[in-house]
Amino acid sequence: MSSPTRATPGDADRTNPSDRTDRSGGADDYIEASGVLVSVAGTVHDPGVVRAAGAHAAVTGGHLVVLAVLPNDAFVERQRARAAVPELRRFALSEAEMERRHVARRAARRALGGVDVPVTVVGAVGREPDHVLATAREHGCDHVFLADRPAPGRALTRDTLSAVCERFEGPVTVLSERDGESDRPTPL
User: Fold this and answer.
1) Is residue 23 over pLDDT 60?
2) Cβ(163)–Cβ(150) under 8 Å?
């Protein structure tokens, strides 16, 4: 998939007006196409955050990158479990990344029915904030969506949230479920 064309401030005179997504009716006010990254974990909270990120990408004419990260400790645990059974082959990094891509693809399919947006899925192993930042940079994403995932072992830790908010050079939106309210976006 090719990256979308992105206008920079100096490109305003060279931007084709027909390429602009005009939401206000004014010739000078438009929303630039952008990349949106959403990190998922394979939980019940994924559809809400993926749907919100996909809708944002669709409205801006951008693309959506769905990332699923397997933490290092979970990867090592899976390797140990496989090693304990001689008949099973070793749990390889490539296999873990493929499984995470499957989690991302499944989350996108379940959440994006009717949303017309180009989607890229990425699977990774390691620290979630590191992969969020690197993947956003690699795919030209200027907005990140995260879900506050209270499921055991999948909570969006304050360390993850802090690291992404402190180091990402764009808006970060966190969707959380609190007090019976579900998936309301909170821009940070």
Assistant:
1) no
2) no
Q: Give the CATH architecture of domain 32-187.
A: 3-Layer(aba) Sandwich (3.40)
What is the distance between the alpha carbons of residues 94 and 77, in angstroms, rounded to a whole number? 16
Query: Cβ distance 119 to 66 under 8 Å?
Result: yes
Between helix 46-60 and helix 93-111 the angle, nearest 10°, is 70
* Per-residue confidence (pLDDT) for residue 14, from 0 to 100: 26
pTM tops 0.90, yes or no: no
Instruction: List the structure tokens of 28.
Output: 């000078």
Q: Is the dihedral of CA 96, 98, 104, 110 positive or negative?
A: negative
The ranges assigned to domains in the chain are: 32-187
Q: Count Cβ atoms within 10 A of the Cβ of residue 84 and give its class: 0-12 exposed, 13-18 middle, 19 or more buried.
A: exposed
